[in-house]
Amino acid sequence: MDRTAPFLARGRGNRAVLLLPNLSQANHVKRLFLSRYPALGGFFDESVLTFTSLAERVGPERQIGEILSGAGRDRILATALERTGDGPFRAMGRYPGFRRAALALISELKQNGRPAAVILGRLDDLARRREGAARTRLEAFRDLFAAYEAVREGEGRLDHEDFLREARDVLVGGSPAPSLEFFAADGFQNFTTLEREILLALADRSRETVVTLPFDPAGEGREDGPFRVARETADFLLARGFRREVLTENHRARHPGLADLEAALCRRTAPAASGAVRVLEGADPEDEADRVARCALRLLRGEEGPARKAREIVIITRNAAPHARRFRRAFRRHGVPLRVEAPEDLSHHPYLRSARNLLRLLSGEFTGERLLAFFRCDHVPGVSPAAADRLEDEVFAGEAPEGAEGWAAALRPRHAVAAELVEALAGFELEPTTASVGEALSRFLVPLWERDLSDPDRVRAEAAAHRALHRALEELSEAPGPAPADLSAFLDRLEEALEAAAPPADRRLEAVSLIDAREARQWEAPVVFVCSLLAGEFPANLREDIFVDDEGRREANREGGLALKERRLLQDEERYLFYVALTRARDRLYLTYPVTDGSGRESSRSLYLEEVLSGLAGEAGEELVSRRRLSDVLPREEEVDGARDLHDRALLGLARAYRPGTEEETRARRAAALHDLLVGGEEPDAAYREAARKGIRFLGPPPATLRGPLTGGAPLPAPRRHSPSALEDFVQCPFLHFAKRILRLGPARPDEAARRVLGEIAHEALRLAFTEVAEGRPPPGPEAAGELLGRALAGIPLPAPLGLRGDRALRELKASLARVLERERARLGGSAFRPARLEAPFGIEEDGIRIEGRIDRVDTSPAGKGLVIDYKYSRRGFDGKRLREIEEGGHLQLPIYLLALERSFGLKPAGAWLYPLLGPGPGGFVLPGEESPAGGAESLGEEELSGLLDRTLERIRELDRRIGSGDIAVAPRDPSRCSRCDFADLCRVEVWRLAEET
Questions:
Q1: Average pLDDT, the chain
Q2: Alpha helices per DSSP H over 59-189
Q3: Which residue, 303, 335, 846, 856, is the most exposed by fewest CB within 10 angstroms?
């Protein structure tokens, strides 16, 4: 920059040009010039250019919309595929990946700067030399390319390469373009054929020209390793009279360890380990971003060396755009400003998707899928996304309606507002004018100012999308030339304008920057994070082109006329980008990656990172890795930040098992002490943050005790009344029984509370159904399920709205009830048993112990026999595990119900069935000769039944003694159920320890 600035200072009036690869790099260099040389003023807009902005200056003036955007090119390719008839690619056109590959090859061919006729001739020559499938693909692509060019020229539109070719022709043709005092091209690792011709034309007009390319910084002339990527361009420039000047000094790295790392990357040798390089492993991509944000916060606070400014920290990824959202979330969570230097695609913002779906519906492209996508966008007045999901389930359960009228009729009984909206859409005539489109948007979308304003980031994003939409409409109205021919063409142009729309530039200076590896050449910073170092991402997965394979590319390059990139060159580019990313740091370098992909699947580290770690000398490379796994529920102690982390750390400590005399006792006491500090609610001061940073191990360990005795020192009273389900709770875990039955604590998990309510609704619906049968009416059929469910819902007050998940559960319950009713009507038609008692209460006395409960249903026969049917709102039926639980005394309900048949109802037991409402048919016990359930049953003789009932009574006496003695031990019989227990946070059970002990 020091060398370029004087030329720029003398070059006012377009006499000096600095050419850069893209707009974001140009903007960054402009900021650098203005910060270092404020006296030069702001003329850099005319001097710091890209190939595109250069073409705008020297090429013919072009109208708005003449240059095709990605959406426009995709549309033209789709038209070209239609014109090729039944060619081999016709069926592939619906796949976006195929279209992207075809457009990429079209761009690559046109980067040669030759007319379409010349390119088609070269493709013909190449196809004739190939055989088999390779020849067929080339011939088909040749036809597709010809059709694409015909459609493009017919519309009078230009690809970006056509635009550059016009500028090339002006420069090479000797137009009166101004001569230059100084011309420099910086940041390029290679040039296309078209760019080379423009570069040479500018060099011919300039008194002095400098082109910077990557070479070995040691000055030995080596061009292997990451620098091989520029060898071809270097040879090209040297052959045309350029002189090589090798820079021998490293101007960036101030830490010797980073200079050593750069030298090792150049020579592929082992660098020395140093404190300048650290490796951070995240549990998943979100955690990786969180660790980077926490580390940046510590750097800003000066907790890791000298305090840094936000602009002194840079984050580099192979492709920044896919990672921008999660890094924004993480940095916002920790209050660190982040500026994303990658181009952001606004066209997929929910507000713009809403507008596109609306306009396509109004243009006659009315489909059910598009209508539901419009409803689900959260920008439609009166229709929520949850309501749209419910409508989709209900309407598509049968035959989907056709057209706007059909949809309005189908929606009317389900959602009146949605039906009225469809009728209004059908009655609106959209015209290809900005006024008509504006009227449609204001009528059918919620205005921006009526949205929820509680989330400022969402408001800013929606405002940017709103501005982009209206800016695109203004461009269409102001574009010179003929208006689009019809509404479809108008909407196509609007789609193209929206895709080209970019959000307002982030001009904050004091912010951490997130950049793409391709943007990093002009960057340097004291601290650099190189993130998401995963196999398949950095380096990117490189595959052969589906149209022209590597062998065809090599042959085309040997013959001349067309220059095509071979996969070898692409691999060299990836290694060079990695070199660039790692060598932007002056003082400290962080390398990061996630160990899983966010779905629990293990990720593979980048082979480039493996090379760095395996080559580090001194310490073992793996010892530099700061690991974090999915099982690490809290950040590391040095990464703890603020009250939220401290609260989480206290709660984790309180959740540990309290074991006196062990390390667990100390942890629990420290957690309690930390919790006492937090409940005061004071804002964290410097000392508080220091405690957060260092962790709770530095806090004093005062004893953590309950405030006062729970029962005054006396044993808990022995409740001599029990229910079967309460006894089963005690069998599972005495502490579960204590919390649920003695303390009477409610369910902590909302999903469990909702499940219990749904179980009550199911039991009530079945009670209503079989009460009618007990009164002599015929069994109801499956068609009665909806009416019974409605009556049950009317009689059971809901503690809160069930929500979308609850609505789906009710639909599932309705279907299950229909299956039960159909199954029972068929069974009762040939059975000697009839429903006699519903929700039948009972009581059993035994040695001063009273067992009370209700049996869901008792069927009786004319012979005085009773059959117990117990409904369960679950999928699990009567299986081998349930039988073992009964034999071991873990499941008591069915044996107690058999006791109740004799002692409370005077019936002779015929069997006891368990009926899972969401699963298969019923199963259970039956006596010999009695009716067996559909799901199968265990046959019990008279002696076996008597022995089972005797063991059950003895088990009841044993459990009653333990409950009366105050047994509240945390001793789960089945540890796998602890994760679903409502009181796991109270007992502080550690399931993994239980698994070890058992």
A1: 77
A2: 70-83, 96-110, 116-129, 132-155, 160-172
A3: 335
SS3 984: helix
CA distance 60 to 41: 29
Tokens coding 93: 């056109």
User: Cβ–Cβ contacts within 10 Å for residue 865, how many?
Assistant: 19
> CB–CB of 191/211 below 8 Å?
no
Virtual torsion, Cα 780, 782, 786, 791, nearest 10 deg: 20
Greatest pairwise CA separation for the chain in angstroms:
116
User: Are the CB atoms for 599 and 530 separated by under 8 Å?
Assistant: no
Q: Where is 402: in which H helix or E strand?
A: none
- Tokens 């750390």, located at residue: 649
Check residue 289 and give its pLDDT: 93
Q: Counting every residue, how long is the chain?
A: 998
Q: 257 Cβ partners below 8 Å, 6+ apart?
A: 271, 272, 273, 274, 275, 276, 277
The H-assigned helical ranges of 616-774 are 642-654, 663-678, 686-694, 724-732, 734-737, 750-774
Dihedral sign, Cα of residue 797, residue 803, residue 804, residue 805: negative
Question: Does the pLDDT value for residue 805 go beyond 90?
Answer: no
How many angstroms separate the CA atoms of 895 and 889, rounded?
A: 10
Q: Residue 516 in contact with residue 187, Cβ under 8 Å?
A: no
Measure CA 739 to chain center: 38
Cα–Cα distance, 859 to 871 (Å, whole number): 13
Question: Across the strands, what pairs with 915?
Answer: 871
Whether residue 539 is preceded by a cis peptide bond, meaning omega within 30 degrees of 0, is yes
960 vs 966: CA distance, rounded Å: 10
Q: Quick check: 810 and 802 in contact, CB under 8 A?
A: yes
Distance (Å, rounded) from C-alpha 888 to C-alpha 362? 68
Q: Are the C-beta atoms of residues 322 and 340 closer than 8 Å to each other?
A: no
Structure tokens of 281? Answer: 């492993």
Share of the chain above pLDDT 90, in %: 6
Percent helix, strand, coil in the chain, to 5, is: 55, 10, 35
Give the C-alpha separation, 892 to 527, whole Å.
65
Distance CA 925, CA 935 (A): 11
Over residues 123-139, the pLDDT tens digits come to 888 888 888 888 888 88
What does the block give as tokens for 133? Answer: 């499938």
> Residue 935: enclosing H or E segment and its boundaries?
none
The distance of Cα 196 from the centroid of its chain, to the nearest Å, equals 41
Interatomic CA distance for residues 141 and 104, integer angstroms: 12
The one-letter amino acid at 140: A
CA angle 672, 674, 676 (to 5 degrees): 70
DSSP state of 717: P
Look-up: residue for tokens 């996508």? 373
Spell out the residues 6+ positions from residue 957 whose beta carbon is closer than 8 angstroms to its own.
846, 847, 849
* Predicted pLDDT of residue 592: 93
State the CB neighbour count (10 A cutoff) for residue 738.
23
Give residue 213's pLDDT band: very low, low, confident or very high (50, 70, 90).
confident
Give the rounded distance of the alpha carbon of 883 from its chain centre.
43
Q: Give, in order, the Cα–Cα distances in Å from 765 to each of 140, 650, 813, 836.
A: 65, 46, 10, 16
d(CA 863, CA 394): 47
**Antiparallel, parallel or unpaired: β 865-872 and 849-860:** antiparallel
